[in-house]
Automatic annotation (TrEMBL):
It comes from Alkalibacterium gilvum. This is RNA methyltransferase, TrmH family. Residues 111-250 form the tRNA/rRNA methyltransferase SpoU type domain. SUPFAM superfamilies: alpha/beta knot (SSF75217), L30e-like (SSF55315). Keywords: Methyltransferase, Transferase. GO terms for molecular function: RNA binding; RNA methyltransferase activity. Belongs to the class IV-like SAM-binding methyltransferase superfamily. RNA methyltransferase TrmH family. CDD domains: SpoU-like_rRNA-MTase (cd18095).
Length: 254
């Protein structure tokens, strides 16, 4: 295996650019880090360009990278740490080519639509929960944080490899669902909203959740079948968007 020891190496410089959204967009690639994420990428046949292993982890992680049909490069601890956004890098990374899912969504199972969700941890948790709940896919509406942000990817725990995640305009997805007679549920606290407990379990629906501070855009809420709220018995004003969406996903889709 080739060993790279200089932080000035051309490939290392290109990998460092993937720590920024601009760099990811330009190269159409992103970085993942951790044994679990790299294993998931291999298992679900992500388009891996190269696997990067820290020199002192070569033997420990052999069982992972030996499963891949990808180049494996060994780097120093200094280089590995420079590619990590965390204080304790785990010593194995991969460069993945960005590809949108080959097939679009059918609506045969529930779809989660996200309107300007800003926190990367929330985004990752929403994708992971949609995967766990058995949803068909997730639509990232305009203004939503970058899917390939390192914190987002850590929070997904690899679920973005399991479930279709598409970028799209929610205003255009609503007619798609409506034409298939699929109900669309927004989340709100306005006078139109009803308790989620009044909704019967369903196999097909769209669920829209929104920005942490402002909720779902008013222009979107006007186009939904119903807008739902979760009754709160305690003193908290509201729930975290990922928690609220999790309750709704598991309750409505059974």
């Amino acid at each position: 295996m080739e060993i790279i020891e200089s932080t000035q190496n051309k490939r290392v410089k290109e990998w460092k650019k993937l720590l920024t959204r601009k760099g990811r967009r330009k190269q159409e690639k992103y970085l993942i880090e951790s044994p679990h994420l790299v294993e998931e990428a291999i298992k679900f046949e992500a388009d891996i360009e190269v696997i990067i292993v820290r020199k002192d982890k070569v033997e420990e992680y052999a069982f992972i990278y030996e499963q891949a049909y990808s180049d494996v490069l060994v780097v120093t601890k200094e280089i590995s740490n420079s590619l990590s956004d965390s204080m304790s890098g785990q010593g194995i990374l991969a460069v993945i080519k960005i590809t949108e899912p080959a097939k679009t969504l059918t609506g045969d199972k529930p779809i989660l639509l996200l309107d300007e969700v800003q926190d990367p941890g929330n985004l990752g948790t929403l994708i992971r929960t949609a995967d766990a709940a058995g949803f068909e896919g997730v639509i990232l509406g305009e203004g939503t944080v970058d899917l390939y942000n390192a914190k987002t990817l850590r929070s997904t725990q690899g679920s973005h490899f399991h479930i279709s995640v598409l970028h799209g305009d929610i205003h255009k997805w609503i007619p798609f669902l409506s034409e298939k007679n699929i109900p669309i549920y927004g989340t709100a606290l306005d006078e139109r909203a009803i308790s989620f407990r009044s909704i019967e379990p369903q196999e097909r629906f769209g669920l829209i959740v929104g920005n942490e501070g402002n909720g779902v855009n008013a222009s979107i809420l006007k186009k939904t079948t119903e807008n739902l709220y979760i009754p709160i018995k305690g003193q908290a004003e509201s729930l975290n968007v990922a928690i609220a969406a999790s309750i709704l996903m598991f309750d409505i889709y059974r």
